[in-house]
Every structure is written in C-alpha cells, then in structure tokens.
Amino acid sequence: MAAPQTLTQALNRLDKALAKLEDAVDRTVEVRAEFKDAEEEVQRLNSDRARLAGELDTSEGRAERLEEVNKEVSRRLVTAMETIRAVLDK
C-alpha cells in the first residue's frame, strides 16, 4: 500500500512542479513583452529627442540670424536718425 501512496505523492509533487514551471514561463513571457514595449518606447523617445534637437538647432540658427539682422537694422536706423538730425540742424 505504501507504493501507491508514494506514486500519488510523486504525481502530486510533479503536478505542483509543473504548475510552478508554467507560472514561471508565463511571468517570463510577460516580462519580455513589457521589456519589448519599454524598448519600443525608448526608441520612440530617442527619435523624438533627435527630432527636437534638430529643430532646436534650426531655431537657434534662425535666432542668431535674426539677432544679426536686428543689429544691422538698428545700426541703419541710428545712421538715418543722425542724417536727419544733421539735415534739420542746417
């Protein structure tokens, strides 16, 4: 009688071990899916960052050109005002 009980206990342990193994596999699959999602999100963020960095560089270049144009316009206005003052003073 000890043998059938031992076989039953062994089968129960095997069922429990298989259930644990299935749970571990399921968790591994879930973790890998989450990791894949996270990797895709990181790739999207890197792509956005690169695009935004390019736009920032373009904007900074434009701002520098506008600043130079602004200085030139200001210089020309000062010259024009001095010329007008000189004409009015005569």
3D architecture notes:
By secondary structure, this protein is mainly α. It has one domain (1-63). Helices cover 98% and strands 0% of the residues. The termini are far apart.
Brief description of this entry?
The chain is mostly helical and 90 residues long. The chain has 1 helix and no strands.
Q: What class do helices, strands and sheet pairing give?
A: mainly alpha
Radius of gyration: 38 Å
Q: Helix content range of the residues, please?
A: over 70%
Question: Tell me about the biggest sheet?
Answer: none
Number of helices: 1
- Number of domain modules: 1
Q: Based on CA inertia axes, which overall geometry fits? A: rod-shaped
Termini gap: 132 Å
Q: Strand-residue fraction?
A: under 5%
Overall mean pLDDT stands at 93
Question: How many strand units?
Answer: 0
Provide the fold topology.
Layout: H1 2-89
Protein name: Tropomyosin
InterPro entries: DUF4164 (IPR025310)
Coiled coil: 7-83
List key phrases describing it:
90 residues, mainly alpha, 1 helix, 0% strand, Tropomyosin, DUF4164, coiled coil
